[in-house]
Write a structure and sequence with these properties.
Layout: H1 4-13, E1 17-21, H2 30-40, E2 46-50, E3 56-57, E4 60-61, E5 75-78, H3 85-95, E6 99-102, H4 112-125, E7 131-133, E8 139-142, E9 147-150, E10 158-165, H5 168-181, E11 185-190, H6 199-208, E12 214-219, H7 225-235, E13 241-245, H8 250-260, H9 267-277, E14 280-282, H10 285-297, E15 305-310, H11 313-325, E16 329-330, H12 335-342, E17 355-356, H13 363-375, E18 381-385, H14 390-399, H15 406-417, H16 420-443, E19 447-450, E20 469-471, H17 474-496
Parallel strand pairs: 1-2, 1-5, 5-6, 6-7, 10-11, 10-12, 12-13, 13-14, 15-16, 15-17, 15-18, 18-19, 19-20
Antiparallel strand pairs: 3-4, 8-9, 8-11
Helix pairs in contact: 1-6, 3-4, 6-7, 10-17, 11-17, 13-16, 14-16
Length: 501
Amino acid sequence: MTSETSEQLRHLFDPRTVAVIGASNSMSKWGYIVPANIVAGGYTGKLYPVNPKEKMILDFPAYKSVLDIPDEIDLAVITIPAERVSPVVKECVQKGVKTCIIISGGFSETGTEGTALEEEVNEIIKGSGMRLVGPNTMGIFSATSSLHALMPPVRPVHGKIAFAAQSGNLGTQVLSLGRALGVGFSRFVCIGNEAELKIPDYLEYFSEDTHSEVILLYIEGLRDARRFIEIAERTSPNKPIVVLKAGKTEAGARAARSHSAALAADEAIFDGMIKQTGMIEADTTEEMLDIAKAFAAVPSPRGKRVGVLTWGGGWGVVTADALAKHGLELVDLPEETLEELDKLLPPYWSRGNPIDLVGTLDLPVHFKCLEVITKCEAVDAVITLGTMGATSSFQSFVLEQPDMDEEKRESLKVKVVNNEFLQQLQQIDEAYRNTVIRLMEETGKPIIAVSFPTSGSVTPMLARQSEVVIYPSPERGAKTLASLYEHYNYLERKRSGVSAG
């Protein structure tokens, strides 16, 4: 059954019509940038710019008021200064606009006068049925309608992750990082000051949204903690919720109040909330995306026994330490599995876990070893180090030597990058990826890959993580695997009726 909130927010994330109030032909104003982003993003509905001083904006007829638009409006985006917002919101209510985003800052995040303006807006919409995002927001993104009603020119990859953030700057930069890594989003909303719509409302919508399989939250403070807990507790068994909680220190709490008017939650209370609801807490922005992309791409492990496949011994040792740190177990492989691996590896291999491939260059052997360890009944999850993405890293190493002059670089391109050898490696890279996908489907076990980039750039293989996940270090891979197992454990406790606390 769909909730009333979800029905209402459907008009926000999948609007048939959008009015931009304060639309402008001046490229230095948000009234130009926001509708330009909507147009450039390929929005599939109708766009109506509103500005009493203009005839045309971005090749669309401009209207003097939202009241003059000869159509129902699902979403109004307001970009005018704060002191002029209230009369426009009144017109939106009069028009019967279903949802509204106030991009403008200058409200409760600025102090007493701004708070008064925000309260005035709230009084205007009370009882109208119009839902309000913000004020002081960077806008929203929705994959299903290709709606980029955002301040920055971000073009997220379409995917399965719904994301609500109390910081537009942080939120949109995570979207950009996701694009670089091939991590896709279904929805994004910069929450802003939460004058009307609050985190629990977005969480409820995401929980019922069939296009979203993972929920990502950046939270600085909660205004309706009880409702948030109730919704999170009933959502977690169906969709994982990954949370980054900022503002835990007094300095962080002050910073949160200054930019989003957020009320910081006590750290101990928030930690208890995490345990009660089964949400997964990330400690950093990197970790937040690491965990979310894994939930969207790989199955959760049904136990803590891990098999490690490594191209060299040292990384296996580092991975063993990382797994132990997060409560996972480097499993002893049964004799029959070791015997299968004996047939594939040189006689001097270590005969243990991690499985050291001792620098074997025959990459198809890696495939076969991966299959053996993944299908081993004693193994619940696999980390494979150094194979997937190796070709792409080699290519970037050749092309991105900072001290190499252009003539030498072009010569290397001809001799190395475009030759038959590299093409064969690329085919093996793709085959390895396909093997990982097949084995996860056949066994229901997660396979976490680690590739070590040779430069600061994102390699082509790293930029395709909708079906496999690749991490730049064993530590990040191990932490992610532990988070997947933590969520599986929570679900098992719920099924058996054991308290999550």
